[in-house]
Q: What sequence folds into this?
């Protein structure tokens, strides 16, 4: 059936290529093999395969970049690409760059064959449709004189073409596992409904359904069992819905229902009906039985919500709170808001952070970093400071500390936007005070490892430095290890780009992160910030003192400058000075305050005897 089909297998691990080749052998396809991204691009351009199975993690060029480049080339843009990955967080990014499907690792033979057959059949249908179109045009030209005979043949071929187009439209808007609408169809439906909501009074609700413990079935019985569970779940829930309800699978174990509500609480009532139904639902696979449960978020569709993304972010927040409280529960948007005080205001962070970015509610604070000379002879003014991010809450009329909103920002993948805001705002502010800035040796700005994954982030930073006329050698980026640096090549390229401009890099919170020591050897950090958990009480805790001392000795052997955080007492400051630490930061030296001209001038004058005219 697929004898003429060519499949390109791309993986830097030969064993994985052998496994995939063995699985696909009985399909009779011609298999092409590439062990690197560059080789894959060369083979794809020269041989034009019908399908590409693409590994995500490769050393020279990751799968996302390979996919992006193939989609940008007119010769290869229509080749479907199926990502092969063990990381669920890669799936969403794979679809964003143009992937058609994904295969999970460890590889399941039945899943691979099923997904490969599906893509090859779809490609065959596309090729057949193009062939029909070409033939149709030719026949119209050739048989104009024979209208009677040609008319009957033309009608048959047009009907066949329409069938093929309808079939392709169906495949583009439906999930092939459950036969439900897919994410694209859901987004189109919700966007249209939101547009009508702005003009007319429409009562509707959005239900996000997250099957609890679906992974147990997938891992204990295999992906085929998992797909069958999803099919049975979809068929079962479909029987509970009204004709005009819209039911879709978002991917993985997440589903969504858009229901029109004649009564205000119909959305909750439908969620309760689904929960009661699931209590009676049992999934049987061979000799195993599984009971199902699901967490359900209910979000009313109102005029305040103007985009599909807003609804999805709100539903994700409600699901997050529901899972924090109890799995298999129902939570409405209002209920989650009422419980927000119990969850450190975790609900609605998506819209709060987006609103804060749009309405400029973030604030830049700063904290001086004190120079700790080894002797009084070296006691000359050296001024450094760190930029800190805070959030102003108009409703509560208070400053929200970063510990409250950084976690949700990372979880919602908004942290790169926050980093961009801090960089642009800080550089713009410092550029306004050139006389004061002349006396500042170094300005440190925190940067999440998540931001380094963005391909254009380094260009953004360089552009802002040049735009505001800031000397690059006065900027130090502190890389936090809140999220592991996944691609070392990407991180090295990012850091080298900025190092070439003259910027510095510090590894923040050193000593507590699981990969801190590995990062020192693999990345070009020139400064180390000792985690404050060891510094704060090093004068009374011998274990912490020993830890600080060992980090300092290691840093000296690597010729790295050391900064100590959380210096809160004169005793700790003196111990650090004796150990040879050059810089200390903490409440003993300076409490953070809002970054503005008056605050900077006051700090420089009181700490170092400098003024704006010095």
A:
């Amino acid at each position: 059936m697929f004898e003429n089909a060519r499949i390109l297998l791309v993986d830097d691990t030969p064993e994985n290529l052998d496994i995939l080749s063995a699985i696909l052998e009985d399909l009779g396809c011609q298999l092409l093999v590439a062990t690197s991204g560059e080789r894959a691009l060369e083979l794809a351009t020269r041989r034009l395969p019908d399908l590409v199975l693409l590994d995500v993690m490769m050393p020279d060029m990751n799968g996302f970049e390979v996919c992006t480049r193939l989609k940008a080339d007119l010769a290869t843009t229509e080749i479907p690409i199926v990502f092969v990955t063990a990381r669920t967080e890669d799936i969403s990014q794979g679809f964003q760059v143009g992937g058609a499907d994904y295969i999970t690792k460890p590889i399941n033979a039945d899943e691979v064959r099923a997904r490969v057959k599906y893509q090859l059949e779809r490609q065959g249908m596309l090729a057949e449709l193009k062939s029909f179109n070409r033939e149709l045009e030719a026949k119209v030209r050739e048989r104009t004189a024979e209208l009677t005979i040609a008319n009957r043949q033309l009608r048959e071929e047009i009907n066949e073409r329409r069938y093929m187009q309808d079939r392709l439209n169906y495949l583009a808007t439906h999930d092939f596992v459950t036969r439900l609408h897919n994410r694209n169809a859901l987004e189109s439906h919700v966007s249209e409904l939101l547009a009508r909501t702005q003009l007319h009074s429409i009562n509707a609700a959005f239900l996000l359904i997250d099957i609890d413990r679906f992974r147990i079935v997938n891992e204990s019985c295999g992906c085929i069992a998992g797909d069958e569970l999803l099919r049975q779940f979809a068929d079962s829930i479909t029987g509970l819905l009204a004709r005009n309800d819209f039911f879709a699978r978002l991917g993985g174990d997440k589903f969504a229902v858009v229901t029109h509500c004649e009564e205000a609480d119909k959305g909750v009532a439908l969620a309760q009906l689904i929960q009661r139904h699931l209590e009676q639902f049992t999934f049987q696979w061979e000799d195993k039985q599984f009971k199902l449960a699901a967490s359900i978020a209910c979000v009313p569709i109102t005029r305040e919500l103007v985009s599909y993304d807003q609804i999805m972010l709100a539903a994700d927040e409600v699901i997050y709170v529901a899972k924090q409280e109890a799995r298999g529960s129902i939570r409405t948007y209002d209920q989650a808001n009422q419980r927000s005080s119990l969850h450190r205001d975790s609900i609605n962070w998506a819209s709060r952070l987006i609103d804060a970015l749009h309405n400029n509610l973030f604030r830049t604070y700063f904290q001086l970093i004190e120079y700790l000379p080894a002797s009084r002879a070296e006691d000359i003014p050296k001024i450094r400071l760190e930029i800190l991010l805070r959030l102003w809450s108009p409703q509560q009329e208070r400053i929200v500390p970063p510990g409250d909103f950084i976690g949700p920002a990372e979880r919602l993948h908004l942290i790169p936007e926050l980093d961009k805001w801090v960089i642009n705002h800080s550089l713009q502010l410092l550029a306004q005070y050139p006389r004061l800035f002349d006396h500042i040796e170094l300005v440190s700005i925190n940067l999440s490892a998540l931001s380094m994954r963005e391909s254009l982030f380094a260009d953004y930073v360089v552009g802002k430095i040049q735009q505001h006329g800031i000397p690059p050698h006065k900027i130090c980026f502190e890389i936090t290890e809140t999220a592991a640096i996944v691609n070392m090549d990407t991180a090295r390229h990012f850091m080298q780009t900025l190092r070439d401009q003259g910027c510095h890099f510090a590894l923040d919170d050193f000593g507590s992160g699981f990969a801190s020591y590995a990062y020192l050897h693999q990345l070009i950090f020139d400064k180390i910030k000792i985690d404050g958990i060891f510094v704060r009480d090093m004068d009374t805790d011998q274990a912490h003192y020993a830890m600080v001392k060992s980090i300092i000795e290691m840093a000296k052997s690597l010729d790295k400058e050391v900064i100590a955080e959380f210096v809160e007492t004169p005793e700790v400051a003196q111990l650090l000075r004796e150990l040879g630490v050059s810089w200390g930061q903490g409440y003993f030296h300076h409490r953070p305050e809002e970054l503005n001209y008056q605050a900077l001038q006051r700090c420089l004058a009181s700490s170092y005897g400098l003024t704006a005219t010095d």
Residues 407 and 549 are 31 Å apart (CA to CA). The two ends are 83 Å apart (CA to CA). Confidence is low (pLDDT under 50) at residues 341-346. The longest helix spans residues 109-142.
